[in-house]
Design goal:
Blueprint lengths: L1 H20 L4 E2 L6 H4 L6 E9 L4 E8 H12 L8 H23 L6 E2 L3 E2 L15 E8 L2 E9 L1
Antiparallel strand pairs: 1-6, 2-3, 2-4, 2-5, 3-7, 6-7
């Protein structure tokens, strides 16, 4: 089931980021801890979206602030310097909601899963700390010159 979830998550990320946010997507084959994937001084926005069903867990998305501004501008049709912090936060949550919803629609044809409400994590709740989770899949993504990460954590 984890490999199927990972495959469908990758497809959902690719389709949502390319179509809705005009971001090229390239997945990285090797795995790194998140604290090594992102530069130490890079500020990140981290969103989480819980889901429940036969298996429960959460999706999450880690996006550098510069990429959040670019995605928001692309999504809203504005210039990057014309987007607010609130618009960036809303865009990141919406991106995760679209990715999670699309992933579950690919994975769960019977509609047995329900999505929660996406939320931004506070900085002290960052998911980049080097913690090992047994039931976690992490996808490392490059988009142009920037990096982001997405994951699924099962409970």
């Amino acid at each position: 089931m984890r490999s199927s979830m990972r495959k469908n998550m990758a497809l959902a990320i690719f389709e949502v980021l390319e179509i809705m946010f005009f971001q090229p997507v390239q997945f990285v084959d090797h795995q790194l801890p998140l604290n090594e994937w992102f530069p130490e001084n890079e500020s990140l926005k981290v969103a989480r979206l819980e889901f429940a069903g036969p298996v429960s867990g959460a999706f999450y998305l880690l996006i550098p602030i510069a990429l959040a501004a670019e995605m928001t501008a692309n999504f809203l049709g504005l210039s990057e310097d014309g987007v607010s912090d609130q618009q960036q936060a809303d865009t990141i949550k919406e991106a995760l909601n679209m990715i999670g919803g699309h992933m579950l629609s690919l994975f769960d044809e019977q509609g047995k899963y329900q999505l929660g409400i996406p939320a931004l994590l506070a900085e002290n709740e960052s998911m980049t700390k080097p913690v090992e989770y047994e039931n976690e899949e992490i996808l490392l993504i490059e988009t142009g010159t920037m990096r982001l990460a997405a994951g699924i954590r099962l409970q």
